[in-house]
Amino acid sequence: MKTSPRRPLILKRRRLPLPDQNAPGETSEEEPKRPPAQQEPSQVQASKEVAESNPCKFPAGIKIINHPTMPNTQVVAVPNNANIQSIITALTAKGKESGSNGPNKFILISCGGAPTHPPGPQPQAQTSHEPKSTEVITETLGPKSASRDTNLPKPPAALPGRRWESYAGGEAAGCPLDNSLTNIQWLGKMTSDGLGSCSIKQEVEEKENRHLEQSQAKDPQVEGPPGTSASWPHSASERPPYSYMAMIQFAINSTERKRMTLKDIYTWIEDHFPYFKHIAKPGWKNSIRHNLSLHDMFVRETSANGKVSFWTIHPSANRYLTLDQVFKQQKRPNPELRRNMSIKTELPLGARRKMKPLLPRVSSYLVPIQFPVNQALVLQPSVKVPLPLAASLMSSELARHSKRVRIAPKVLLADEGIAPLPTAGPVKEEKLLLGEGLSPLLPVQGIKEEEILPGEEAPHLGRPIKVESPPLEEWPSPCPSVKEELSQSWEDSSHSPTPRPRKAHGGHKSPARCVSDMLVIKRRERREMSRSRRKQHLLPPCLDEPELLFAEGPGPSRPATDLALPAVSTRPASQLSCSQEEGGPFKTPVKETLPISSTPSKSVLPMSPESWRLTPPAKVGGLDFSPVRTPQGALGPLPDALELTDLGTTPMKSVPLFDSPRELLNSEPFDLTSDPFSSCSPSDMEVPKPGSPEPQVASLSANRSLTEGLVLDTMNDSLSRILLDISFPGLEEDPLGPDGISWAHFIPDLR
DNA sequence: CTATGTAAACAAC
DNA sequence: GTTGTTTACATAG
């Protein structure tokens, strides 16, 4: 390779001055918190017994039932006016008591009156219906909102601490820790952590931070306390099973400010993974740099004075993984997990290249949940789902796709940051979006696409969700420099069908098909991209990133396993391969276009896929929570999307995780209140449909609703938002009609 | 094909 | 020399 004749010329790059970009934001850096890793024990087994529902009541009038298909998981219907915190606290306690064998995961949904759909407001009231199936999807990612919370838990000083931080939930150890960062208990406390403060004198701070960071980096202890530490346990000579990308993330996330200079990154890696210090060829540093430049998730920030460059992880993409966390997971008791881990770890040595080590990124909670309502009812989603889509999805391909579960597709985060989120208003948090970012229009289309293009994975659909949210605020300024560019370019690429130099795709067909065309385009682009890799768009979380989730299926397909997913979910898995990027297809050209940054590619215009982000505005504006925002506003698709996408399989990042429950709570007023149905409400759901041809689809939508709920995992002490896709196949027949339905119907026990 | 790893050419400091 | 970008190529899955 070296001199390959083909080597393209490199155009000159100019660096933008961006003087102070960061200034503004600096503060933002704040640290996010930590991510909770979610894990779940996925034990498959359980299914049934658990299923039995035992409704328990909580103080607040909460109804709790065992999830029919997910082991150790209970569905908690929370009255609108209930005190969520207290409920969470109670559930946490309960979960901890139960330990790994008992219910340790709770899906909270509001049962209060659903505005729109009356019948069910109070779940209690309801009778029984059968719910058909529900799917929950969530993502664990964690970008949290800006809010910051930083790490609460940790000692501020944190210095070296980070390693210790780990704690992580102790789960593994079996300790019920409450200390975990995500622990709910903090909720109450955290209010004002120190976190908030940010900046001000940036420079000063920067310096300070740097020190800290450096110090951390240097910490010798790398290995530190065994339990905690992160250092790579294996012999120094062994190459760690983590990709460069993962290691970079670990390094960056090990600092409080979540940023690190290149040099510190080198140092951190050397300290934690002796292999690089002693054995690896010097070229590893080149690789680090390469990775930093290549992946959009890594954002370079310049200090106020412009002299120091810090590398940060885009909040939208940052899962806040730390080596400790990962490590702990590995330790996890759960056999399956271990298996996975071990595999990973072990592998590598020999095979060096194989490191794919990152933890399996699971899509966390994307697991679909089915509520069997009544057994009888347990419908198969299929019933209603008949969509062609479904069929197609189901098709072998999908199944096949299961190959990898990618959690995070590379969606483009690009926008993320940028996007000023329209609404932003609500919370900073992210909102989730489901669906893909296709054009608003079609929900169905997605389907078609697939049909059309079988080969691919469900492209966009898959893309699922996204997350959005970049907490704008969080990203400080820096982004601007890079990001801006990015944003533009990205979008362009995606959208504009036009210009792609490369393939002309041929004419687009009719406008109507735009969508599909677009999709196609994307694919092509993707391919193109593959050739040259430009900066990878942020992916939602990058694929590679290490995810903590556990669940990932061990190997196989089941991603969601954690939860014990129902089979259903699993199967589909698929696809989604996530459209990874989408981004700008062309590599080269970009540069020229955008003189600005060197990396043009990213920048392409914003329209594309990401559009969802943009789009939502209208809707988005709404609540954060509830309604699912569909990417583009096309809600309609959601349902479909969900299915199609395979939520289960697909990674959706959308769901925001909250590092700490507290965060979650704070972030928004929860809307548990909103009733599922309400959310479904027509407006949203329907909207999308515009084009959807299929009646079926329509029906689906009618019967299905998306709503947001929360998943409380006491094993992790994590609280995540999730989207629930509830379908009621039988509803039509139901006298009440879809609208009238309430959870209660489905879950009699809720009462 | 994709994701990753490596090497390398350049550019800007 | 360091830091960043971007290609090219290789390879495992």
Automatic annotation (TrEMBL):
It is found in: Nucleus. One of its GO terms (cellular component) is nucleus. Residues 1-52, 110-163, 204-237, 455-514, 574-610, 666-698 are annotated as: Disordered. Residues 500-511 have a biased composition (Basic residues). Keywords: Activator, Cell cycle, DNA damage, DNA repair, DNA-binding, Nucleus, Transcription, Transcription regulation. One of its GO terms (molecular function) is sequence-specific DNA binding. Residues 239-332 form the Fork-head domain. Its main location: nucleus. Residues 204-213 have a biased composition (Basic and acidic residues). It comes from the Eukaryota. InterPro entries: FH_FOXM1, Fork_head_dom, FOXM1, TF_fork_head_CS_1, TF_fork_head_CS_2, WH-like_DNA-bd_sf, WH_DNA-bd_sf. Residues 487-497 have a biased composition (Polar residues). Residues 239-332 bind DNA. One of its GO terms (biological process) is DNA repair. It holds the Pfam family Forkhead. Transcription factor regulating the expression of cell cycle genes essential for DNA replication and mitosis. Plays a role in the control of cell proliferation. Also plays a role in DNA break repair, participating in the DNA damage checkpoint response. Promotes transcription of PHB2. This is Forkhead box protein M1. The gene is FOXM1.
